[in-house]
Automatic annotation (TrEMBL):
Signal peptide: none annotated. This is AAA+ ATPase domain-containing protein. GO terms for biological process: defense response. SUPFAM superfamilies: P-loop containing nucleoside triphosphate hydrolases (SSF52540), Winged helix' DNA-binding domain (SSF46785).
């Protein structure tokens, strides 16, 4: 067993290194069902490519779940062949909290935009398309982009963030900030239907109910996917109406700010519909395994007597987790991740999982 675990770790490291070395021409995984993405990609492309051939930076800003990362990935896929290299630094807000997190991200950036992977070899830097995804502090941008010699002339940089102040503090002018709109009613119904019915339109008898669910989402793609997946296995009108009442009640609590430790009640419903095995594996992924190899985690869960294959199949179907098909790694939206971690935090000082130094230190101090 120990040899097998060592082999899994080695394979995980090699897969990560191989992903970095070959990522410059590998298309990014975008959502299975994209609605309205073409016009948004065109808007960002026009904004990015306007002006001269100097290195320039733009922002994509909006609330969580509106599709900023999806748009950025789609832009990368559209424009990558116009650049010598691409670098997508994901989940910067979360990774920067880890020891040497920004240094690791900077190393990834340098390895992907230079010929040798060494910062000292400035003349070998490429004309690159760089995405800094999910930034929440201006110092994160400064740390990653503080040396202009890293980028050859004509390089373009996209920063995605929820915080407009971060972009303003970086000196990005308002006309260089793209703020994606929510999906309109028709787009929202189509995206919901893809996940609830596996078709572009609701089944007969469910049109009005679907429209009521869609209204609760405010046109946010993430919620449309989660809610659509939630209704996928519900096939009677009575059951639909019962779930709709639950969502409407949760909507009222969200509006009033009545939340369990900040957890959005509407998203929490998707978690509550899981069985105990699925909940444990979901929380493990949210706390420990985002960006980690699936095989390693599967081996651990099986050793603990859990049933990961069936659980992951359910989590995928419910849009609570994705798997990067190239790297075979777990991917989770930051709002879903935050929901999972807040569920764990709500357990109190005896909580079941710790994923950072601050949480461990606090628990030890409370137990003194």
């Amino acid at each position: 067993p120990e040899q097998k675990l060592v082999l899994l770790v080695v394979n995980d490291v090699m897969r990560t290194l191989d992903g970095r070395l070959s990522s410059n021409r590998r298309p990014f995984n975008v959502a299975n069902h994209t609605v309205g993405i073409e016009s948004r990609v065109d808007d960002v492309t026009n904004l990015l490519c306007s002006g001269d051939d100097h290195t320039s930076i733009i922002g994509i800003q909006g609330v969580g779940g509106i599709g900023k990362t999806t748009i950025a990935k789609a832009v990368c896929n559209e424009l990558s062949n116009q650049f010598e290299a691409t670098s997508f630094l994901s989940d910067i807000s979360e990774k920067s909290k880890q020891p040497n997190g920004l240094a690791s991200l900077r190393g990834q950036l340098i390895s992907e935009i230079s010929e040798t992977g060494l910062e000292k070899d400035a003349p070998t830097m490429k004309r690159a398309l760089v995405i800094l995804d999910d930034v929440d502090r201006v110092d994160q941008i400064d740390e990653l982009l503080d040396r202009q010699h890293l980028f050859a002339a004509g390089s373009k940089i996209i920063v995605t963030t929820r915080c407009e102040d971060v972009l303003i503090m970086k000196g990005i002018e308002n006309h260089k900030i793209y703020k994606p709109n929510e999906l309109d009613e028709d787009e929202s119904l189509r995206l919901f239907s893809y996940h609830a019915f596996l078709s572009e339109r609701p089944l007969e008898g469910f049109v009005e109910l679907s429209e009521q669910v869609v209204q609760l989402t405010g046109g946010l793609p993430l919620e449309l996917e989660i809610f659509g997946s939630l209704f996928y296995n519900i096939r009677t009108e009575d059951e639909w109406e019962e779930m709709l009442v639950r969502l409407m009640s949760a909507q009222d609590q969200d509006v009033q700010g009545i939340q369990h430790g900040g957890i959005q009640e509407r998203l929490r419903i998707a978690y509550e519909e899981l069985d105990s095995n699925e909940k444990r594996i979901f929380l493990d992924i949210a706390c420990f395994f985002i960006g980690r190899g699936k095989e390693y985690a599967m081996h651990m869960w099986e050793a603990c007597g859990l049933h990961p294959s069936s659980a992951i199949e359910v989590l995928l179907r419910k849009s609570l987790v994705q798997i990067d098909s190239e790297k075979d790694e777990f991917v989770m939206h930051d709002r879903i991740r935050d929901m999972g971690r807040e569920i764990v935090i709500s357990e109190g000082v005896m909580r079941s999982r710790f994923w950072n130094e601050d949480g461990i230190t606090e628990a030890l101090q409370n137990n003194e």
